[in-house]
Amino acid sequence: MKLIFWGTRGSIAKPGKGTIKYGGNTPALEITSGSGNKLYLDAGTGIHALGNKIIKNNSPREINILITHSHWDHIQGLPFFKPMYSKNFKINIYVSPNNSFNPEDIINRQFTSQFFPVDKDVLQAEIEIIKLNESMNFQINDFQIETVPVHHSKNTLGFKIQNDNKKLAYLTDNEIFYEGELPRLNDIEEKNKDLINFTKGVDLLVHDCMFAFNDYAQKIGWGHSNNLSAVLFARAASVKKLLLFHFNPEYNDNRLDEICADTRNFVKENSIDVDFELAIEENAYDI
Ligand SMILES: [Zn+2]
Ligand SMILES: [Zn+2]
Fold this sequence. Notes:
This protein is of the alpha/beta class. It is built from 8 helices and 14 strands. Strand 3, helix 1 (47-56) and strand 4 (62-66) form a beta-alpha-beta unit. The chain starts with a strand and ends with a strand.
C-alpha cells in the first residue's frame, strides 16, 4: 500500500509561511492498494486538492471515502470536492451515525443557505451514504476494513485497513488514557487495552498528536493525545512504524520540529523501541 496525506492539521486549516513543511490542511488521506485501487479517509480541507487530482487523472468512477466522525475538520472539505459536481462519479461516503447527526446530514446540513450559497441539487455525482458502526469488518475492492470506537466524542471511529498482508491503523482524534504527570508504558497498556489490541502489530499506525506533552495537561479529556503518550502506545501495540498526525493549529513548523526532537530524546532516554516520524502533507509513505 501507499499512503499520501492531503492534510495533517487538526481542528482548523492553518496555511501560511509557518506551516509549509508539515502542511496546513485538515485531514484527508489517500491510500493506494498494491493493485492500484484507491481508498480515502476523512474529508477535511485537504480533500480539495485531492479532488482536483482525481479529476485531472481521470481516476476510476467509483470513489470510496471513510469518515471517522463529523467534526468540522473531518468533513469541511466535502462541498469543495470537485468530483461531487460531476456526473462521471459515484461517491460512497461511509460514516457512523451519532445522537444528533444522521449520516445523510453530512451532505444535507452543509448544503443549507446558512453555510453554502447553493443547495445540494447542484451535485451531479451519484452519492451514496453508507452507515458504519463500531466493530464492523467489511471489504471495499481489495481493502479489508475493520472499525473500532476510539476515545473521542461518541461514535468516532478508528479504522484498520489491510491489503496484500500489510496493515495500516488510522486513529485520528483519539485520547490515549493515562494517570499521573508522565505517561508510563504499563499504565498505558492497562488503560488502553481496547485500542492496543486493535492496532497490535500493524505495519503503520497513523495517530493523533494534537498536543505537545507540556500542553496536554490543560487539555485532559478533550479527546486528543500528546507526543509522549503516542510513542508509548505505539510501543505497547508493537507497531512497526508510527506517523504522528493531526497537529495543533497553534504549532508552526519550528514548534513541530522541537516536538519531534523532544520525542526522540524521550524515546532514547527511556529505550523505547519505536520508529516514528511526524506526518508531512503531500508526502507519500510506503506500507
Ligand atoms: Zn479532528
Ligand atoms: Zn474530533
